[in-house]
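Data availability (excerpt). The following record was deposited with the supplementary files.
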Amino acid sequence: KYTMIVWRNQSRNAPLLPAFLIGWAHGANIFSTMAMCASGSKPTRLSSSSSSNNQGCRRFAGEDFDVPTLSDINCIENRQLEHSANIFFVGKRCKYGFPQAFGFHPVEHKVSSGLFRLSCPLLVKAIDEWEGEGGVREMSDAARSSAEITADFEETNRRIAQIRRSIIDSFPGGMEKVQMHLGEDNSERYLSSGIAGLGLNAGLADVKCLHAHVADHLCRKDGGNRIGQEVLRRLADKRGVNVCGNENCWQQCDVNHNRGPSDWHYLPRKNRQKLKATRRRRKDMDKDLKR
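Predicted structure:
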């Protein structure tokens, strides 16, 4: 079945482009992660976001990434993050059909070393709690003890640098914008940085942000990032988290659901701080307009 979808061209000067796009499976990493929640008994709610499965893809550094649909953007910005975001592609979906992670454009709006972000409120909450109990230290120790994970960590950083550079090369004036903002020396360090801005020679003394590793894993169709995969496994096996969705988490992500005070909801502290700052700026602007 073919569906007409209107999507934003990432160049600011380009018009909106219509495209006939076919829904298709996300790749091997979906099935490896979905296996963790095969025992779930609650029926899926894919009908609430079935249009999200009809989408195209963009290819960078030899890898395909799914173009976000309008439903994806609406869910991520208005329900998961509760603020606007520079959504360039989306990753794997939960059992209800909502995106669990997305990718930023590294230079379209501002120069940013971050490339992937975890958006699923259930996973964000679970990792926030685990990091608060020493999760980063635990995963750093586990990674150092595994030659396979160490090799994959190095490859992950190389691949992220390649993907970032490929996206920037494809964006008109992208490389010039990087050099203008960072200078020649810092530009090269930025272009060669890996996950969460880590240098290519970064060791495993600190694996940095577990959210970023999981987001990278969920956005990569080949199931890349063994650390992200291991984080999801430990959340499921050791902390009892249904990483594909629990009984009530859909209440936050479903834009067609009228949320009540007792509904499941989680907003990270940094998101709350950003919302407060936005409200303060709007109040200041309103005061200036009334003068």
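Summary of structural features: Residues 147-170 form the longest helix (24 residues).
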